[in-house]
């Protein structure tokens, strides 16, 4: 990755009218309907954007969408990249750097996750207050990283406290149950064994998934305030483990996303 590549990607989008977005949003599995809330949308397909990776997962659609939500200019990733698709973590997080280059001042990230904390139930939303990186690498582990920012990034408070407080108050006001917990990011794409679920519980994870953490690390590298939520789509009880049904996961995410959209829209309004 070079600064020249980032400039070319951003210049292509600016020429398409992606001018001065304030908020970047990454939509997780089954959570794509937020794009229906965008006024006057402009669309750029990933395969047209210079140096962008291509989405290979069938339920991730691969578009960057620019427009207005609640009076604020937003740029939304409909379809993200994963380590398990064979990309390196610089590819996975390249769109975050491009959105930052376009001018975003805040980043929202969403994902579908499995509950390790069995007090969390399918269809609930968890606000990520902290995370555990189990992906075995870092999106900052490349030779010329210092050209893009400080190599040794402090991760003591990876999620923006002001946005955490705001969205918690919004959830109370809107009567939406919002859990708070620790997200563990694994590589995937295989799901976890019973022993792995037990290990995740022991090390302090409340939910597990295969994304988000690389994007959050890069946001911190860019000093970009970030907020992330998990939609809980399955319950990972090692003593009563049910076979995972990907279609059911997508369906539960779809049923829950109106609540997530409401939280995000109200937060956008207040920023």
TrEMBL record:
It comes from the Bacteria. It comes from Cerina litoralis. Keywords: Glycosyltransferase, Transferase. GO terms for biological process: nucleoside metabolic process. SUPFAM superfamilies: Purine and uridine phosphorylases. Its EC number is 2.4.2.1. Pfam families: PNP_UDP_1. The purine nucleoside phosphorylases catalyze the phosphorolytic breakdown of the N-glycosidic bond in the beta-(deoxy)ribonucleoside molecules, with the formation of the corresponding free purine bases and pentose-1-phosphate. It is an enzyme of class 2 (transferase). Residues 23-269 form the Nucleoside phosphorylase domain. NCBIfam families: PNPH (TIGR01700), PNPH-PUNA-XAPA (TIGR01697), PRK08202.1 (NF006054). GO terms for cellular component: cytoplasm. GO terms for molecular function: purine-nucleoside phosphorylase activity. Belongs to the PNP/MTAP phosphorylase family. This is Purine nucleoside phosphorylase. Pathway: Purine metabolism; purine nucleoside salvage. Gene3D superfamilies: Nucleoside phosphorylase domain. InterPro entries: Nucleoside_phosphorylase_d (IPR000845), Nucleoside_phosphorylase_sf (IPR035994), Pur_Nuc_Pase_Ino/Guo-sp (IPR011270), Purine_phosphorylase (IPR011268).
């Amino acid at each position: 990755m070079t600064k020249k590549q980032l400039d070319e990607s951003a210049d292509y989008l600016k020429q398409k009218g992606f001018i001065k977005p304030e908020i970047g949003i990454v939509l997780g599995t089954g959570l794509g309907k937020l794009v229906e809330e965008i006024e006057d949308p402009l669309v750029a397909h990933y395969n047209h954007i210079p140096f962008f990776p291509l989405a290979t997962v069938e339920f991730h659609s691969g578009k960057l969408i620019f427009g207005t939500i609640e009076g604020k200019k937003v740029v939304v990733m409909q379809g993200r990249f994963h380590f398990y698709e064979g990309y390196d973590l610089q590819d996975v997080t390249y769109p975050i750097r491009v959105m930052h280059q376009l001018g975003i001042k805040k980043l929202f990230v969403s994902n579908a996750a499995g509950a390790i904390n069995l007090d969390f139930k399918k269809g609930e939303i968890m606000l990520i207050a902290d995370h555990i990186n189990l992906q075995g690498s870092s999106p900052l582990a490349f030779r010329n990283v210092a050209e893009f920012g400080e190599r040794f990034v402090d991760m003591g408070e990876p999620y923006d406290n002001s946005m955490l407080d705001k969205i918690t108050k919004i959830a109370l006001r809107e009567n939406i149950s919002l859990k708070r917990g620790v997200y563990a990011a694994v590589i995937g794409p295989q799901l976890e064994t019973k022993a792995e679920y037990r290990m995740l519980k022991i090390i302090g994870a409340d939910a597990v998934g295969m994304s988000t953490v690389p994007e959050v690390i890069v946001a911190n590298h860019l000093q970009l305030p970030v907020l992330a939520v998990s939609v809980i789509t399955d319950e990972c009880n090692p003593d009563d483990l049910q076979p995972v049904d990907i279609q059911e996961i997508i369906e539960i995410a779809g049923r829950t996303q109106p609540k997530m959209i409401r939280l995000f829209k109200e937060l956008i309004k207040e920023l």
